[in-house]
## 1
Amino acid sequence: MRLHEYEALDIFEQNRIPVPRRELVSDMHDALHAAGEIGYPVIIKAQVLVGGRGLAGGIRTASNADELKEAADTLFNSEIKGMPVRKALVCQKVDIATELYLGMTVDGYSGKPVIVVSTEGGVLIEETAKTSPEKIAAIHIEPSFGYYPYQARSLLRMLGLEQKLITPWSEIIGQLYHIATRYEALIAEINPLVVLSNGALMAVDAVLEVDDSALSRIRFPLPDRVDRIENPLERRGREIGVTYVDLDGDIGLISSGAGLGMASMDIIGQKMKPANFLETGGGITADLLYRCMELIMMKPDLRGIFINVYGGINPIHEGAKGVIRYMQEHNVRIPVVAKALGNRQEETWEIFKSGGVHVVTEAATEKAVDVLYKLVGPGGKSGAGRAKTGAKRA
Amino acid sequence: MSILMNDSTRVIVQGITGRIGSAQTHWMLEYGTRVVGGVTPGKGGTTVEGVPVFDSVLEAVKETGANASVFFVPAAFVLDAFLETIDAGVKLIVIVPEHIPVKDVLKMRSYAMEKGVFALGPTTPGILVPGMGKMGIMPASLFAPGRVGIISRSGTLSYEFAGILSETNVGQSTVVGMGADPVVLRNLADILELFENDKDTDAVIVVGEVGGEQEEKAAGFIARKMSKPVAAYIAGRYSPQGKKMGHAGAIVRGSAGTHAGKHEALRAAGVEVLESPIDVAKWAKKHKLK
């Protein structure tokens, strides 16, 4: 779960990382009041959970009240990459001498946390990695020993930074590591980490992404994660315990695994267009698949439904009961094709067939998608299916 | 004849008394797996599917001679049980559960490496050796004995690829789920090496997906060390951007785990990249695989 910038900045401040003066606002009036307290010039930053917020117009500078009025008015009436702006952060604009990058994440290949720093702050680290990898330095942390301050000193030398930064630099890296550990962060990032004109360091931005699997044991107040999903269908997916991604096609999809779901999307995309991605994971019951049908049918213009499930850990015969119960209760008339293989497959096929589902008993998803294509015919949407992130269109 | 499991593998099931643990014990026994015991603290002395249950892994190992373990333990207790299993001397461990915190996985991986334990997962369907046995949740009906190795990040896609091959009379030597988490207990290249050294495997299929850099890293290993033909499929060509985490661990090396990037790295290593799963049948035919 990714925290908002204002939430992450609060956590940084509580943990003695220097951050700018700031106030969270939800309309233009509050923004003007906040800027009066903080003092101009200020920066107003949209609090939306998307990457590349600055380039999309979500960060604006104002040196007086008129400029702030205009900036706030524009922000609160716009969408940043499809996300409505409900809250913004008004921040003190500080005097910046240099912008650096500091990030921590987990390196999946080595199985170790890694601290990444760069002399190129304020730009995407991915871009720096491509264009000037020599400006990046990284150190891995041994999971059984943890972080030690010499590692910060090594990073300073590796980047060729001035020796006089050594104390604030080591402190900030130590504190960010402490936060990343306590909050079980998969990503903790300060970009940019700025050197102020007086030589001090300050985090003027904050990224904190908490491990979803650790949420239940983190002993610090965290916001409700269902709350922050803007798309109502994706929120509903989270509530019932499945991963749902809203797409802009017209073929509904239910799959029993992430890999199978992605492959199904890719295959459907060859001739038709998926309306959604949905994967159940290992928790299939009759009720769950009933709710999944309900969820995918919330899109009004579906032309067909594709169900792709394996009975390994999942009782697919139970799932089939839920699907046909939904179809009977709601008089579903669009074609439904199911490929269901594995434990208790014959029983599953019988249940599906009794409810009018077209059953495919071969393993290749391509063949089952062909069956659906023949049933729905050409003429619908086609192609990959783009993500729909915004609340408005859903 | 196979990798990881063979006819001297004696399996214990941890979390055997749970709903999933007991159901999967049934399927593993039905497939002929030598499930010799189970562990659930506090339930020692009972039996599940005729298999004796013990309170601790050490007792189970002493009483049954077990040398492998498969986990159906709730995510919150996996780290504890994993350390216990390694300390009891078990050398092959399969972690089926999903949603284990990454911080725990890092500790598990570090300890397993230190103690020379081969562990798979988390979020893995396990291992299946057709006609011999299985540790995990793979549904037996899709597999057939033969000489093709499969390694998959996704459980369901490992069944799909085995199923397509079996329908065209191409069997599998061993099917291995490496796990779908951002950090897994064994890297793809380590499993490829086992297949390269297995005299009963003629070719290997890698079933990957977008995200992370396992496939890119494995490409380097394949180019340097693999003599057997390797084919690969990467799921997620149309996965929308921004719905996946961008991990700086991959980013540092100038690669962000994209579909195109993985294809490119694998092709450069001489891997035959399959555009769609069904193409695996043509590939197997071309190489006259059985």
Note: The radius of gyration of chain A is 25 Å.
## 2
Amino acid sequence: MEYFIQQLINGMTLGAIYGLIAIGYTMVYGIIGMINFAHGEVYMIGAFIALIAFILLAKLGLATIPLVLLLVLLVSMGLTAVYGWTVERIAYRPLRGSFRLAPLISAIGMSIALQNYVQVLQGARVKPLQPVIAGGFKLIESSAFTVTLSYLQIVIVVLTLALMAGFSLLIARTPLGRAQRACEQDRVMAALVGVDVDRTISLTFVMGAALAAVAGVMVTLYYGVIDFFIGFLAGIKAFTAAVLGGIGSLPGAMLGGLLIGLVETFWSAYFTIEYKDVAAFAILVLVLIFRPTGLLGRPEVEKV
Amino acid sequence: MMALPDAAGEALLEVEHLTMRFGGLVAVNELSFVARRREITAIIGPNGAGKTTVFNCLTGFYTPTVGRLALRHPRRTYFLERMDDFRIAQFAGVARTFQNIRLFPRMSVLENLIVAQHNTLMAASLFSVAGLFGLARYRHAERAAIERARYWLEKTGLTPFADDDAGSLPYGLQRRLEIVRAMCIEPVLLCLDEPAAGLNPRESAELNRLLLAIRAEHGIGVLLIEHDMSVVMGISDHIVVLDHGSLIADGTPDEVRSDPKVIRAYLGEEEDELPGDVAADFGRNHGEGQA
Amino acid sequence: MRPGATARLAGAGMGLDLPLILKEAGLTALVVFALALPLFGFRTVDSAGGLDVAYRFDWVAAAVAVAFVGRALLVAMRTLGGAQRARPGEGLLARAGRAFYRHTTWIGAAAVAFAVLLPLLPFADRYVIDIASYFLIYVMLGWGLNVVVGLAGLLDLGYVAFYAVGAYSYALASLHLGLSFWWSLPLAGALAAGFGILLGFPVLRLRGDYLAIVTLGFGEIIRIILVNWYSFTNGPNGISGIARPSFFGLAFSRSPGPGEVAFHEFFGLDYAPVHRIAFLYYLILGLALVTNLFTLRIRRLPVGRAWEALREDEIACRSLGLNPTNIKLSAFAIGAMFAGFAGSFFATRQGFISPESFTFIESALILSIVVLGGMGSQIGVVIAAFAIVVLPEWFREFQQYRMLVFGAAMVMIMVWRPRGLIAHRDPTVRLHAGGEAGR
């Protein structure tokens, strides 16, 4: 039982991270109907920027943990957002109206390029980071197993919930959110009534990248090691989360992320850790085959 | 409802109680009509009346919520509501065109017509295996397919463009190519979704001639969705009028033209308050088509 | 391009608009600064107390300077060049291209003749022949994937899985069942095709981008299984000592085993290791040419035309009575089959295989060969495979930039030449004989 509760906590933390990345997939899919294959790489870049920022701040002798965290979040979100914007500007915008597979292939190219760009610049080795936020609560102490809820896990879940809430408000209440929803419905019509479609799409990428950066900060803190390859698997899992939740739906992305995090954690805890990545892929395939609209998505009517 | 005057052909397609709902929206409601062999049946109605939805149900792209779509072949009857889209084309012999033309743009005009004969050629080539080894059986079948394509190309004046990419044709020719491509599957029922949209009057007249020729020489039924009244009134034998998904009139062009419900559907509810010249315009348009 | 730029252009005539240039260049430089600062400016290095960073601000400065000047030149060229921008170059390229297409048959024949004679040429030492057979594996894989991506328009990101199936089925068949290469070859092809159908059946009705990610997932699943199923695949250690193929029962070894006859003994030659390398080269050349002939042929058959039609418009296909699932499955299975053949050749050439050789990067490599070459173009694949496989062998010091360059090239090709290097497509059947020559 204690073991179960511990896995639940761990799974939810992991799920929060996946959920944040999944939002980027879901928003981009909602607005331009493509899978941004490079999104996992953007998240990886966010993690690298966070790592570098942590080291720099430590060298500067800054030790107030909340302040460090805030600064790293801001720096990583800001700079990763520029990457998100650039990816859209270079690899996707020129392809609007090109043939069906073009944006997809371009996205794959972008993903490969970014991965190797970071490898070339920062080296292929695994990068460790000293724990920044240590300690936690001991929830249940028994002779066999101690359930702990670390401060870091609390930070991750709380931050994710706060971002989600802020984000939902942004989409629901602001002119930008309105423009976004308009573009989702009908891009041509939105342009006709004066929505700056290019700018809206750019901002969608910027927001998705900023959220992925938050996930990158979290993962750097949580696992303490990153490398240039983490974006690949995390990207696929987050995409699976987005599909599972219903692609295009923000709460769906969060829910899907949570489920994938839980499945993966429980799978490694109770079955075999070797095949934990297979679990995510299997879910992806099963969802796409049996319920392509996901849990919270709306059915798509084929336009003939 | 089925009390039509005795027409030339026997019943080919019987639509009974066709209803299509999308969530809460009723796109087609309890629609029943009959289309006959050797007749051109037009489905008309204001935008959003559910005409294309009827086509999508007939050709299997949508599965109707309720209703029976019976296609009478001489020896058996196909119930289209239960069939997959490609089987409807392959076995029941229902061909269609699309509102926004759907050609294979990066394939040549001739290839477009040969792809349409895919199933015949597949059978002749033993699923392409015979073709792989260059057996005579397949070569004959391919020659026959080219001959059929040539026949339709010549009929539509597309012969000089046969080896060009379909996507490079001017709009009017693309429309014509899509129609003859549909004819290449040798259908018993041809469904045309706004074939005259975007055509100039000369092209429109050519289209009329083509459709009349298809009816006369190939003895098939034609279903036609069209807004261009000169086409509709000019060539249809029978007109079905939809409004908001329901049937409001069904009869010959003359009957439909004078039907007050039809005029109201087209010109709005307050028909009496409309200036006289608009109503006259509507009538004149019909008259032109007849000429 | 940008509305602002064109408006100014119209206002200022053909003169240089310095403020505009400075503004655009400045903005670009600013963006590049933000991009370069974290990853160029700092480099993580291992140190005694954990991770440390080193500084590389000179790189940032260089990147910003290049961006500023580059953008300024670009804008200047755009304003100055106006309408006739890049036209002459394009015309030249188009003319060269047309000449190329007119003579594709000859170029193809010459290339095949060259390939056949290659091992006999004076400069062809062991190394050259070995590289050439390595190159031909990718040509064959590219041609195989071309069926799926180029003709049928299905984006398959897990193609390497079928390659792995082929390689492992030969390795295991020769190891456990003692099957020879020639018996294993059809087996490997059939198994790979079977896997293709198995995967394709549930997923082929998915939309294009979903299909891409599911095939990617499938490729990873196969690799993870290969890594973890120790008892069957020997896990990450791989399988070594895979039997080498023989020349109609003649072994390529200095001292053949009991009851065996060596190739050099039979023909009365001196033993030379190059014999085997040349034999492997001809083997893959033969396999690749079979792939090519098959593809060229099937393009003119109903199935091949249906693939292309499906790529163009699936809904139209359905309205004409084409069963999309069967057509996609056939493309998938045939593409997989060729990957299976190539896989068994790979296993026999290397003598050793491990899951390392079948990562996503490999799929991406093959895909970029198809994309760069021009989807659907057979010659394009050869040219692209040369650029992607052989050129990096010559510039080994740049090895680490290889994938970076491919990724960037894929993006650039999609932006500037989405149909690939060889975008031309000849109809598979003509009504008017020799139509093209007249134009």
Note: The longest strand of chain A covers residues 136-141.
## 3
Amino acid sequence: MLRQPLNRVQALLLSAAVLLLLFMATPGWLRLDGMPPSWSVLWLLPWAVVEGPWSGLMAGLVLGLAVDGLHGDGLTTLPALVLLGLWWGQFRDARRPLERSTTLGLQALLGTLLLNGSLALQLFWRGEVMLLAWQFTAAQALLTALLAPMLCSLQLLFWRRVATRYGR
Amino acid sequence: MALGRRLNRLLDRSLVLSTGPWLVVLAVVLGIRLSKGAPLADLYAQFSRPFWPGTAQSEWLQQASDLESQQRIALLEGELARLQDDRAQRQQSGPWITAPVISRRIEGWWQQLELGTGALAGIKPGAVVTGPGGVLGRVASVTPTTARVTLLTDPSSRVGVELQGNRGHGLLLGEGISRPRLKFLNNDVTVQPGDVVVTSKASSLFPANLIIGVVQSVDTQAGPAPEGLVQLSAPVESIDWVRVR
């Protein structure tokens, strides 16, 4: 595919740049009801599944801080992403490779619901009102779950290749 | 026992050493978080520079601003004497800065715009952001080359407003949909769909008498005071250039 295979740092930097671009400007045709898919979930899931709970937790922390930085003060995605990284890291030692099943879509669906649920809870605590929260949470969860089997399995294979070259 | 072994494996020294790079990344991102995403926003601004909106709307905006200020002079002439000793009015100083919209996040949990002009051009946090038609929101934070705008529709947005002509005072609350809710402060207000909503003279966040929108529907049965939904006059979805002061 690439003449000179990427090393892990290059791959991480590249995926971070792509993530930043997608995050700030999701193209219109990738949206459902105006909602973009949850890019944090789509990136974190394959990374945690390949690298394990510890890396998943760290990645969740890093991702959460970055996402919160992009949104300014207020709601935080940090705790949900850390939990998701830790949870999905448990699948590293799963007996059946995750990319061969429909589990990826289901995991992404649950992850997106958890992420949005944590935001809804914070908004509730702050006493602010968000109409249509159910509607766009459902839209985002569906879209993320639809994209996950495709995007996450590709990333899974990619991270696995990058990881095994370094003899984890 | 199994828990002890698990904990032991988690605190393994080689594991802790191998997380060194992670800690560096963590420190960097913590810096990014503390600066409210400043390096990321600047990086994004550089990435996306070739795709920024064209200048046509910017010129049109400047032409429109002349016309708008003429109308505003006519509108405010009668009230000028009273407004002169108004603190909010005195804060309204300096020229308007024109800025392109480089990212639009007007769905989901946040209602934000990212502008391609920042502190280097003189934008400060708290500045008012308007588009053709009316007020859009306030600048929440700035970086050297970008500014983040919290829109009036954001759940955290609370703005003091009144009906044009110094009638009913109220509070405009964002609820995440394109029409914020207007809650009046007292009961004896006569409001009809079509009334124009402007920023309040009592507001310390916004200069007075900027046009926000039009009352679209009224619920007179709501307690303790009437409520209404306001259609904003500046179309957030299609604005490519805004003015900041």
Note: Residues 41-245 of chain B form a domain with the Thrombin, subunit H fold (CATH 2.40.10.340).
